[in-house]
Amino acid sequence: MFDNLSERLGGILDRLTGRGALTEKDVDAAMREVRRALLEADVALEVVRGFTEKVREQAVGATVVKSVTPGQMVVKIVHDELVATLGSDGQTIDLNTVPPVPIMMVGLQGSGKTTTTAKLARRMTQRDKRKVLMASLDVYRPAAMEQLAVLGRDLDIATLPIVPGQQPTQIAKRAMDAGKLGGYDVVLLDTAGRTTLDEEMMAEAAAIKATANPHEVLLVADALTGQDAVNLARSFDQRVGLTGIVLTRVDGDGRGGAALSMRAVTGKPIKLIGTGEKTDALEDFYPSRIAGRILGMGDVVSLVEKAAASIDAEKAARTAERMRKGQFDLNDMREQLSQMANMGGISGLMGMMPGIAKMKNQIAAAGLDDKILKRQIAIIDSMTREERRHPDLLKASRKKRIAAGSGQSVEHVNKLLKMHRNMADVMKAMGSGKRGPLAGIAQAMGFGGGAMPSPEQMKAMAEKVKSGGGLPTDLPNLPKDLPPGLRSGLPNLPGLTGISNKPTLPGLLPGLGKKK
Fold it and tell me: Mean pLDDT over all residues of the chain?
């Protein structure tokens, strides 16, 4: 979502950091460009004015002008101000009250309230181990109640039975009574929306709030809303009273202005972001991490957390043992590819890595997209069990059969096998005690035996990467012989493979090559 804003701000700030000293004139010129970039990203004018004034005020101070690297200091000021605009501390849903905890979802029609309600219910059920009841109060949109009921059945989460003819306030009261009688921890109230703001919707939302007395009132807003985001958030806050915001379609091509505008205008925290259509695509909103992504600093902490959540510990242990014995076959490779897809695919992972934003054109030229993972998994799925265990069996006739079965060409099959051989060689080197260049990463992620980095160490890692200092040296199992590209701050990614010190993507992921 923030790609365009990230690209514009990155170019402006790169020009500043390339200078030995900054004058007030330089800062003024940069702030004019920052102002233009924010307005193009649909950030509200009042928010843009406040943002640029605060940054300029700090940037022209004596500390910056006399600094050894004033340009980098300006980058830090812009980063800190972005964090302050988005909300200094990330806040989550508050469940600290007597159950059942009523949570009311409000917003315009089409913003994704019903889907977000199901996502939130799944998250609370699976992650927080809460007993959740979902209730649809939308008596206007055709099949709105049935939609929530179907989502509830799919997720095995209880939904309030539909009683035709009841009004929203009556449904809200019945939902709260059912929550108390059924011993539920949380009751999610999915209210009706309209295509535009109107008095009838606001009056109904206020009546529902008076009936259910919700502990949280969450505004579900589409990240594509643009300039109108300010009016939307302000209206709901004044009439209903918000406790937080949920931004949906963050994975889309919106310009990111809604996130900056809503938080600044209402003072209400953005608590969650929807990152996809699936019911598991809901994440906590961390202002510092989002600011890091906007400025191309990456998000190492989220990357590590995603890995910890997606990787099956038992499977990882078995794979690590096989790696140590040099037994990395195509079944193991398929497992690695699947885990990569579950963690957000190539684009999702690379978006969190520092410096990748500046390599966007190279990534596009290399043809690295999520279709590659699906294609490679399809090729492996077209093999027999014996062929997966023993890739050496794959001669010309078998390759033709596999290519036909997976809908790919023999060339794609050969590329996959070459990639497997490269990976197997690295795993073998790691297992035999010869420290391959990827061994440090494997150990840092916990695959080489020993402890995973602690949350404090993850945070330190992210902070150090942001400041350009590379990875901290005190992580468990992080060896002292890491490649220069990794030790000095990660953006020089191909330094990991030892193939080249220049940032060329094909060197980073050997065997993937260009799309045909």
Answer: 74
